[in-house]
Specification:
Helix content is about 35%, strand content about 15%. It has about 325 residues and is α/β, with parallel strands linked by helices. The chain has one domain. It comes from Lichenicola cladoniae.
């Protein structure tokens, strides 16, 4: 008689981080939750809600913004601080027993070597590296004892979180912005952004959030970040661009303190789900591209650009996730 005993999965098989992350985001989207969008809280207007490292003060970026947004701690407190168990211990903070951490990722470059063990070089003589995705565990400040209270700060502590910040960014970008009509969009052929009149929006903050979303699309022109903005390939191709602009506008909104819950057409959501199911690395590429878009647009604010190098964690190039 044939055995009915079920075989157990190979416990020694390496974890597929790409698939695990993609599965979590797919599950959230299928449940009707867009995990990277922070519910708009007027009390936090003008505050930076991007997750930051509690010990270095640097902000997490790219895919790690999405990973930390999946945690219930991300939206339940006004504290955006995280760090590893080791970092907490070095500061004398104690992660409470039984607390579960949240996974973040980084790319580690491993040297490629030839058959004789010598460094392998590219055609231009630079050393070849193999990008390896590595996971790390961090804990939220509310999971620790001994950590100080979240520092009290006014809502407009720095110039790029003041109400006029969006105007500064738009003006310095040089983007052509036309006001009128009932739709907001970027037109690649005429290279202009169309925005409805200000009175069509429920608040100046919402106008700013939508304007930055369209500026994210504007950044993709050949003379700027050079993304494929053609719409001739159908909704699936355009949805890829929309996902990058969506993520970028959320990154910018969280940095400046603007709404990030701008509605999207339902067809985009279906296309995102299909793309993620078909390609487990797409969300990594999209998040990395979105971070570059956000960096590009925010840098039009001179004060932000001057401070960025000291406040940003490195972000992996999307080609490392290919």
């Amino acid at each position: 008689m044939a055995s009915t005993r079920r075989s157990r999965p190979d416990q020694t098989a390496p974890r597929d981080n790409y698939q695990e992350v993609t599965d979590r985001i797919i599950a959230a989207l299928e449940a009707g939750v867009v995990p990277w969008r922070r519910p708009w809280d007027p009390a936090l207007a003008g505050q930076n809600t991007m997750p930051s490292n509690a010990t270095t003060g640097r902000f997490y970026r790219g895919i790690n913004v999405l990973m930390l947004a999946l945690s219930p701690f991300a939206w339940s407190t006004g504290d955006n601080r995280w760090c590893s168990y080791k970092q907490a211990a070095e500061r004398g903070w104690q992660v409470r027993k039984g607390e579960r951490g949240t996974t973040v990722f980084f790319f580690k470059k491993l040297e490629r070597k030839d058959a004789e063990g010598a460094p392998e070089l590219t055609g231009d003589g630079t050393q070849r590296f193999i990008p390896m995705l590595r996971a790390s565990t961090v804990f939220h400040a509310s999971q620790m004892d001994g950590i100080s209270e979240v520092p009290a700060s006014g809502p407009h502590e720095v110039s790029w979180r003041r109400p006029e910040a969006v105007d500064t960014i738009l003006r310095n970008s040089g983007a052509v912005i036309r006001i009128g009509g009932s739709q907001a969009f970027y037109n690649p052929s005429s290279d202009h952004i169309q925005m409805p009149p200000h009175e069509c929006f429920s608040s100046p903050e919402l106008f700013g959030a939508v304007a930055l979303h369209e500026l994210a699309h504007w950044s993709g022109a050949e003379s700027r970040l050079d993304r494929d903005l053609t719409r001739t390939f159908g909704i699936a191709r355009y949805a890829e661009e929309e996902l990058r602009a969506e993520l970028a506008s959320c990154f910018m909104g969280n940095t400046i303190g603007l709404p990030s819950d701008i509605p999207n057409h339902a067809s985009y959501l279906h296309s995102w789900l299909k793309k993620l199911r078909d390609d487990k690395r797409e969300i990594f590429r999209a998040a990395a591209a979105a971070q570059r878009i956000a960096d590009f647009c925010l840098a039009f604010h001179p004060d932000y650009r001057a401070a960025a190098e000291e406040t940003q964690e490195p972000v992996a190039d999307e080609r490392l996730a290919a």
